[in-house]
């Protein structure tokens, strides 16, 4: 039987993934660092534990007894407010790295070690960000931490692959329902237009994709990354400022009338 672990189960993606996976065969352990008595989930209890704590290790060890496969979905993390580099002091930088990189390392290390010791194969799937390869303006510490997470996944892929444990990363772009998207205001429409699909990913489709990517069907993607950003990170320039073929004098402010995307 597949035993699935979700960290950050009260977060935006973690909560959606928790609800999604309750529909799948197997057992589920939902974990978060916060306790919210008013919140509910179809998964039942959400256990309170920090991935860096002994409590987390005890929860994982107890949960994996009798498992034939483990699937960890590490969704925990913290997205900061936009900040100029000069305004991020070393303590704030360190805290953001700790929340997004050290916690990921602890969750991966504990789960991989216990699974390997008990000869339980499976997958470690970690939520990352397209900011690991394409910098956000004003989120330097966050992007640096997420780049570190991508490196961690590759390291775990090499060391724990021989134990039958496949590690993988999901790089996520803007989410339609996120708090940061809600704050875009007047920037919302032009920002969405930068995405080749002309929309942001919905949290429900992210949850479905992450669940599928963490399954046995994708075990051969060990060390690799699935990017869910609608094509945002695949372009050199946005369409609004890319000169189309044959339009030598065409400008975004004075298009020639051909259907090449300015309107």
From TrEMBL:
Domain of life: Bacteria
Gene3D superfamilies the record matches: NAD(P)-binding Rossmann-like Domain
Signal peptide annotation: none
InterPro entries given in the database record: NAD(P)-bd_dom_sf, SDR_fam
Family as reported in the entry's similarity comment: Belongs to the short-chain dehydrogenases/reductases (SDR) family.
Protein name: SDR family oxidoreductase
